[in-house]
Structures are given as structure tokens and as C-alpha cells.
Amino acid sequence: FGFDARSNLIKAAESAGEEMYHELVRRAERQIATKARTRPYKVKDDIVRERKYKVLRQKAEDVIEFSYRPGNCKRDYRVVALRKNISVERGESVLFSEYRYFFYITNEAEMTADEVIDQARQRCNQENLISQLKSGVRALHAPVNTLNANWAYMTMAALAWSLKAWCALLVPVSPRWAKRHGEQRRRLLT
Questions:
Q1: Is 138 strand, coil or helix?
Q2: Among 1-5, 60-64, 73-77, which stretch is predicted with the lowest mean pLDDT?
Q3: Transposase IS4-like domain location, by residue (predicted)?
Q4: 69-86 core/surface letters (b: 16 or more CB in 10 A; e: else)
Q5: In this model, does residue 54 exceed pLDDT 60?
Q6: If you write DSSP's letter for every residue of 8-41 in order, what string do you get?
Q7: What is the pLDDT of residues 79-92, one digit of tens each?
Q8: Using 50, 70 and 90 to split pLDDT, how confident is the model at 1?
């Protein structure tokens, strides 16, 4: 899982030699069955450059792993550190480059460092999805605390939705009042 970038971890990652780092190889999200399409021209980049906004661009991602013992633990854990090389640009000029570190702590010895980072990112995506479904629409949130009560609540919600849809279908659409009845039907269905 992800771990805060504390100063002692950053020092450990910086003190390792440059030859210890290797470039992160990202796994492709999907295979392209046909030929790759040409990317459209990025108009926004021209506007940002022209107006001289400050831009952060990621140049490289490097990975290193080392052992680390958290404060109150009795054993060492494996830490995978991801170092992102970010260049800060304004207009056409590059102001400076900086490193940002992301740490992942694990006790998995069989996985490679790239696989650890990939697993952590997939888990974060799943946690984001769950939080959006629970707090945003609240479609998957049942307000009661037992399985049978949740089942009854979802059954009532499904029946209410079906009744609302049937009411919308019962609204007559006569030619004389077609516009008004069409709006009423749309309002009931949404």
C-alpha cells in the first residue's frame, strides 16, 4: 500500500546510487487490435505556452527498492520507491527539474517492483470508484444494517422505480396536448 513520503524515506531513496534505479515499465491497459491512430494536435498546449502559464511535465519515472523498518515494528519491510522526474516550465523555457517520491510498502517478496506499483495503482482506482459510488449518486448505499432489511429496501426502491416508469407510460399523448404531455412523460422518466 502507499506510504507517506517522509523525510527519512526520501533521504534513503536519494542516498542510493543512481545505478540502483531502473526505469518503470508501465503495463499497457489494453492491446490495440487495429493500427494506432494519429493523435490530434494539442491546441491547449499552444495556449498554455503562449500565455506563459507554469506547467509541470513528467519526464521519467524511476524505481528503486530497499528495506525499511517503521518505528514500532520488529521486522523490516520492503519499500518500493517511485521517483518522478518533473520539469517545471513557463512558456518556452524550462525553469528547473525536481524529483517527487512515492513510496509503497509491502511484505510481498515474489512480485517485482513494477508489479507492486501496478497493484497499488489498481487498488487506488478501485477505492476511488467505491468512494464515488457511495458518496456521489448513493445508488449502492442501503441505509439499514441487516441483509434482509437491505434486501427489502432495494425491493421497495425497484418497485417504486417501476411504478414511476409505468405512470410515465400511462400519460396520454394526444395530438392537441402532445408537447405538454411529452414534457410530463420526460419529467416522470427522469
A1: coil
A2: 1-5
A3: 47-163
A4: eeeeeeeeebbbbbbbee
A5: yes
A6: HHHHHHHHS-GGG-EE--PPPSS--SSPPPPPPP
A7: 888 999 999 999 88
A8: low
Residues 6+ apart with CB under 8 A from 69: 75, 76, 77
Chain CA centroid to CA 121, Å: 8
Sole residue written with cell 402532445: 178
Residues 6+ apart with CB under 8 A from 173: 181, 182, 185
| Structural contact between residues 180 and 171, judged by C-beta atoms closer than 8 angstroms | no
Q: Are 94 and 100 in contact (CB under 8 A)?
A: no
Task: Name the DSSP letter for residue 75.
Answer: S
Q: Phi and psi dihedrals of 101, rounded to 5?
A: -110, 140
CA 152 to chain CA mean position, Å: 33
Cell numbers that stand for 50 in this block? 503562449
Q: DSSP string of 139-186? A: TT--SSSSHHHHHHHHHHHHHHHHHHHHHHHHS---STTHHHHHHHHH
**Of 187, 188, 162, 185, which Cα lies nearest the Cα of 172?**
185
Element (H, E) at 100: strand 93-106
